[in-house]
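Customer escalation, tier 2.

The customer says the design service returned an amino acid string that "doesn't look like it belongs to this structure." They asked us to rerun it and document both sides in this ticket. The original structure tokens are below, unchanged.
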């Protein structure tokens, strides 16, 4: 339904437009919860019905996830793309060419870009918060978005009110981080 309704006549659509349409348009089908939309998008990207990407500042789009499990950040710049756009961009990257980007004329776009005049830019950001159970996937989307805006992201994890054996820590946690190329700063 997402592909037929939102990507039938255009190469991409902003994720926030889909959310707004499904939640605010009179007569539009409603979901039983907010996670249903994200789950549907995640499944569509994994199966290759469409891709998940980002709208660049110059009006072009870049496919970030296609036929893989995506990290949904729910940001202003996040877009769904036609599968053909993602295939073309991936082929260009594998053949050593330049990635294909699609720019849609402003007349076809149904949203306006916010003015950047007088916007205060943060050069550094520090957050401290507790992570609610079941919200790790959404947090990954936020971290992915932060990495698109900043060159470096440092994370500190403190786990409490449970237990973990030293073997589990070494064999599961440290090993997984090592395989990801992440070096632990041990005190």
């Amino acid at each position: 339904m997402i592909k037929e309704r939102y990507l039938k006549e255009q190469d991409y659509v902003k994720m926030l437009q889909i959310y707004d349409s499904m939640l605010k348009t009179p007569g539009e089908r409603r979901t039983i919860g907010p996670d249903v939309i994200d789950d549907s998008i995640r499944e569509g990207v994994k199966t290759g019905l469409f891709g998940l990407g980002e709208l660049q500042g110059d009006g072009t789009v870049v496919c970030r996830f296609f036929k893989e499990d995506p990290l949904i950040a729910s940001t202003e710049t996040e877009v769904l793309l036609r599968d053909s756009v993602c295939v073309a961009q991936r082929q260009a990257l594998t053949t050593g060419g330049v990635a294909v980007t699609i720019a849609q004329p402003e007349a076809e776009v149904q949203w306006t870009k916010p003015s950047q005049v007088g916007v205060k830019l943060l050069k550094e950001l520090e957050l401290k918060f507790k992570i609610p159970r079941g919200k790790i996937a959404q947090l990954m989307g936020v971290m992915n978005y932060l990495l698109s805006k900043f060159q470096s992201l440092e994370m500190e994890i403190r786990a409490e009110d449970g237990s973990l054996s030293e073997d589990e820590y070494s064999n599961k946690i440290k090993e997984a981080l090592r395989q990801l190329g992440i070096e632990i700063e041990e005190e």
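Tier 2 assessment: The sequence is consistent with the input. The longest helix spans residues 34-47. Residues 129 and 144 are 17 Å apart (CA to CA). Sent an explanation to the customer and offered a walkthrough call.
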